[in-house]
Known about the structure:
Layout: E1 2-8, E2 11-17, E3 31-35, E4 47-53, E5 65-67, E6 70-74, E7 80-85, E8 92-100, E9 106-112, H1 123-130, H2 132-138, E10 141-151, E11 154-159, H3 166-177, E12 180-183, E13 186-192, E14 195-200, E15 214-225, E16 230-233, H4 236-243, H5 254-270, E17 273-278, H6 282-296
Parallel strand pairs: 2-4, 4-9, 11-15, 15-17
Antiparallel strand pairs: 1-2, 1-3, 5-6, 6-7, 7-8, 8-9, 10-11, 10-12, 10-13, 13-14, 14-15, 16-17
Amino acid sequence: MYHYQYFIAGMRIQCRIPFPVVIQEEAEQFLFSGGEKYCIEERQTDAIITFGQAVSLPSVPENAVFRSDHFYSRDKAGRYQVHYCSCPGKPPYACTIWEQNDAGRLSLSCLYLPGNEFRFSYSRMISDHIGMETFFIRKDCLMLHASFIRQQGRGILFTAPSGTGKSTQAELWKMYEGAEILNGDRAAVRKSGGCWYAYGLPYAGSSGIYRNESTELSAVVVLRQAKENRIRRMKLLEIIQNLYPETTIHHWESDFVEKVLTILTELAEEVPFYLLECLPNRDAVQLLKEEISRNDT
């Protein structure tokens, strides 16, 4: 059995798999190989996932929800499970079953049929079968569609629908304010020790920037393109309306949706949110910088 450790969003996931995995570039800072014998103590982990071959898979319940090539359901014992298909219309080749103990530690078993080992041979395939968005939400953590920068110890997230200018604003802050871009497309957000932190993730979109670093979150900025630069603080309802579509979420699972809305509400009440209607220029950077500084005092 080979052992791999995911260090992601300040949490540890121990992966046990019968064969070696190729660690791809985007996962190099997040996934570490311990070889065949290495294994950290269970109490040091937030989740353990074990991959193993099975002669057969659990049956897909009639009430399972089908999305893309996945079936989402609960078994007779109430355990959450996901069946994976190679494409719509094909029978499942694997099933991940979730369990959680009283201490909150997650235990996952990913069973796969013989001959499907190639579907787990790369690091991205491993994370896909873990279901990171599900892991995060069970650990009170959000995955947001956002560019993530750090400037003088401040963590700032730029979020908006694709093509609105998240990466452009991040690059402008790098150019004019010396900010570091920690992730170009996704960030995790979770509360730790009474403070909100943003974390880089191994998903970067077209930017190719993914750093396994974190910083305390100072502001979340919702972007809109405009003919002139304007900024204002956002109120709770519009924060939810604008942020909810930018979270990675299972819309068909009511408990998932409820958890996301609870975390978003707490985040919105404790971290400043701004609506920045802007042009792709230095004045937009200066306007946001001054607004954040004013609210820091």
